[in-house]
Task: inverse folding
């Protein structure tokens, strides 16, 4: 057993770096989201402001920061202020355990994946108290929908991740990546099914279209964040984009072999190899994010009964059968 | 064993003490909020703070698995269900409590408090405490599984019984809600 040296300074520095990364990432993703949507749906706006529309994000950010924070008179003020923070902070903490490379990982916990999931659970709480404290019926409906959706989708999400954990026999994210090596878990039939289920549920967990019912603007104005202005909304927004990264990073480390190329394990030492590994990891994660954005602008929003039917009647049975089949396979053949 | 502590540990001990006290304060403060809050939803949020504090104590004691489970289950599932139920059951107004005379309240509180303190206290002081054996590791799925199905199998099985009762209870409540025409959980969900 190795006792980890107290590396509080490292964690503090890493947390600051993560916050910077989260902000940069959100700015870039907003821009990407605009560009992709513009290309998919022929929206000319995002081409106008600055070179390649790059200034649009900066202006948006400035607008958000400059706006007045308005708290509704009937709102529960303390909870109202707490909710955006609660939706923004846990994803950043969760990012600290993501293995971007062999060395570029702030804290490799033995229960890494569980740690991330437990922090992700706080996101529902944030949405719930945001919707409740706003004293607005649209917000409340958004929050109620979000909870129904998140609780339902958490089951297939956990089952699909459990399949991967069962296959590799560890909860440690670094070990999960190393256990796959070049032979990604997604190449096995169980891994493939689990990956598809995970990705669908992951999109539902981040509340993104086609699963964005908690903030369906055509019915609920803006859902749970209707009453939030300025950076209050901004923090929810940052939280959503951070959650996107988290979902993609988990998918990358559990199903897509982390920083390894297909059928090639990258074990080289030194900064250059590490850099290559980090770039491969980020390439995979951002490709998945691109797919998410692509889906958002391609598919219409599902109806609520369709959403829950998909979960309870398709995803949960399939993930259960998949988990059982993987368990039988491991017992009979050996993983 | 590969121990790589730096030579001067006092700073870390201080940080550990502060963390420990912070978690205890969080647990107690959350508990107080849960008891004293006038609005039900504040009480549940207080409970959540308290539960996170307890999770922090578990993490402080080095069992990250239990800490994670504490947050995942109690904060992520149980408390959210509670907030959900409170939100659907009542409008966000202050709950009028059944008024009891203050003297009665204090008397009852003192009796219950003394009784609890006496029972727990006698147990605590009667026991000869020795330092707990250091848990070497217990965070891999295999160890967790073996632990659950050997040493802790009784608790593990009892939990499923509790869950069964919870499910039956929720079915009963939901059925009664439909029968009288009142919606308990919002039927359009």
Result:
């Amino acid at each position: 057993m190795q006792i980890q040296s107290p590396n509080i300074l490292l964690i503090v520095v890493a947390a600051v770096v993560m916050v910077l990364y989260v902000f940069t990432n959100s700015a870039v993703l907003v821009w990407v989201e605009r560009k992709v949507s513009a290309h998919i749906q022929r929206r000319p706006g995002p081409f106008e402001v600055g070179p390649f529309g790059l200034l649009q994000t900066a202006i948006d950010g400035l607008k958000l920061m400059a706006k007045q924070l308005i708290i509704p008179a009937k709102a529960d003020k303390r909870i109202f202020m707490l909710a955006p923070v609660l939706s923004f902070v846990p994803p950043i903490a969760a990012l600290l355990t993501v293995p971007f490379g062999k060395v570029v990982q702030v804290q490799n916990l033995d229960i890494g994946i569980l740690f991330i999931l437990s922090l992700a659970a706080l996101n529902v709480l944030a949405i719930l108290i945001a919707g409740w404290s706003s004293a607005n019926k649209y917000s409340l409906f958004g929050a109620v929908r979000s909870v129904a959706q998140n609780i339902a989708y958490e089951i297939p999400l956990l089952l699909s991740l459990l399949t991967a954990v069962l296959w590799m026999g560890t909860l440690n994210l670094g070990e999960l990546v190393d256990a796959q090596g070049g032979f990604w878990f997604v190449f096995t039939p169980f891994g493939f099914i689990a990956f598809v289920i995970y990705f669908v549920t992951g999109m539902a967990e981040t509340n993104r279209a086609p699963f964005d019912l908690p903030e369906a603007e055509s019915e609920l104005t803006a859902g749970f964040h209707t009453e939030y202005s300025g950076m209050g909304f901004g923090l929810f927004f940052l939280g959503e984009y951070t959650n996107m990264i988290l979902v993609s990073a988990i998918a990358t480390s559990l199903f897509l072999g982390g920083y390894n190329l297909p059928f090639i394990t990258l074990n080289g030492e030194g900064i250059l190899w590490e850099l290559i590994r980090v770039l491969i990891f980020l390439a995979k994660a951002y490709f998945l994010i691109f797919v998410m954005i692509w889906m958002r602008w391609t598919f219409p929003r599902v109806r609520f009964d369709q959403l829950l039917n998909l979960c309870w009647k398709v995803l949960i049975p399939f993930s259960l059968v998949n988990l059982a089949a993987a368990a039988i396979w491991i017992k009979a053949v050996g993983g | 064993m590969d121990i790589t502590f730096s030579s001067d540990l006092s700073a870390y001990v201080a940080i550990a003490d502060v963390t420990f006290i912070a978690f205890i304060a969080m647990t107690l403060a959350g508990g107080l909020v849960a008891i004293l809050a006038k609005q039900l939803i504040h009480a549940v949020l207080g409970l959540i703070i308290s539960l996170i504090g307890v999770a922090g104590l578990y993490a402080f004691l080095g069992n990250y698995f239990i800490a994670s489970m504490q947050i995942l289950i109690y904060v992520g599932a149980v408390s959210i269900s509670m907030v959900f139920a409170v939100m659907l059951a009542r409008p966000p107004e202050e709950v009028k409590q059944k008024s009891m005379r203050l003297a009665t309240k204090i008397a009852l509180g003192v009796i219950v408090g003394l009784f609890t303190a006496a029972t727990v206290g006698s147990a605590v002081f009667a026991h000869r405490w020795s330092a707990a054996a250091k848990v070497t590791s217990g965070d891999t799925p295999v160890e967790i599984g073996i632990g659950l199905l050997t040493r802790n199998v009784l608790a593990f099985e009892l939990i499923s019984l509790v869950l069964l009762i919870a499910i039956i209870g929720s079915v009963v409540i939901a059925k009664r809600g439909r029968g009288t025409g009142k919606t308990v959980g919002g039927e359009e969900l």
In short: The longest strand of chain B covers residues 2-3.
